[in-house]
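Write out this protein's structure.
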Amino acid sequence: MSLDSLDPTQPAPVQESTNGDEVSGDLVLTRVTKEFGTFKAVDDIDLTIPQGSFFALLGPSGCGKTTTLRMVAGLEHPTVGRISIGSTDITGTKPYKRPVNTVFQSYALFPHMDVYENVAFGLRRRRKKDVKKQVDEVLELTELTALSRRKPAQLSGGQQQRVALARAIVNRPGVLLLDEPLGALDLKLRRQMQVELKRIQTEVGLTFVHVTHDQEEAMTMADTIAVMNAGRIEQMGAPVELYEAPRTTFVANFLGQSNMVDCTITSTAGDRLIADMHGTSVAMLTARSTVTSGKLLLGIRPEKLHVITDEVPAGDLDVVKGGVITDSSFIGVSTQYLVRMPWGQELMVFHQNRDTARVLAPGTPVTLAWSPEHAFGLSAEQDAHAGVETVDEAAS
C-alpha cells in the first residue's frame, strides 16, 4: 500500500515505491470498467489527465469517482481496461510500486512522530539522500516550518491536512490522489485550504487528481472537471465551460443550480432560436442549445435572472410577466427569491445586494428578465430534475 494509506498504529512495511521522476507523463484510463458482482461501479470510461494539471472527479455518492481513484492507486483492479502513466502501463502494478501517493480525508498521520519525521518517513524508508534538504523545502512550501517539531495531536485540522499533503508530495509521485481531503474541515477552513491546495499544486507542478462531491471545491481548484454519474462521465471541461454551457440536465443541476423551463422552438432568427415559453416568445443562442427543433428545456441560472417591480429597462432582454414572490431569504451577499410563474412553476432568483434596497416580501408581483445570451437549451426528453441533490445526499 502507499505511505498515506498506512495504519499509524501498525509497524510500517518496507516501501519500494517507484520515484515519480522515473515514471511521468499523462495519466490515461482506457476503456476502464469495474464490476462488483452484477453492479457496474465504473462503466467503460476513457480519460486523459494531462501531466501537471489539477483535475477533479466530481459527482454524488455512488457515482464511481472513488472507485476510479482506487483503481489508479492500485487498491482496486479494473475488470476491463488499462491504466497508464506516460508510456508505462500500471494496470497490474502493486500499489506500493506505483508512482502514486494518496491523501485521504482521515490524514493517517503517525501520532508518535512529529511533523518533520512524518514528512521524512517515506524518504528514509527508501534510503534517499538529502532528506533534510527535501523535507525543509516541502515544509516551507506548505508553511509548516514553524510547526516541524509538533506532534499531530498538537495541530489543528488544517495543519494536519497540510502535513499529510507534505508527506505525499515530498516523494515526488507521478500522480497525487486526493480523496475528499477537506471533508473533515469546517466551511471557513475548507475554503482557505482550497486556495492553499491550488497554490501548492501550481508551485510543485505535480498532477493532482481530486475526488469530491463538493461543486464549489472542484470549481475553485481544478483546471478540468469530469462530472460523473452512474459510473460514466457526463461531461468534462473547464469549470466555466461546464457551468455556463452544460450539455445535460444532470450537469446543469449538479454543478450549481438551474431553472429548467419547458419550451417549444418556433423559429430561427440568425444565430438565435425563438421559442414559446408558456405563451411568451423568448430567444437563445443556437450554439448554446443541444436541440434546434421541437420541445426543449430552457435553462437559466438563478443569478442571471433580474427581478423587476416597475418598468422593464431597455436592452436585449427576454421578459416574462406575471410572477409573484413566494419566498425571500436575505443571506448577506445576495437575496434569494422563489418566484411563482403564471404556469405554476417556481423559479429561483439570486439578487446581488449591491445597495440597501429593501427585500421584497412574499406576495409582491414581479417581472423576470434575462439576456438571451445567458440561456441554454437541453433536450426535453431528459429528466429536468436530474442531478438535484436531496437533503440526504447533501448531508452525506
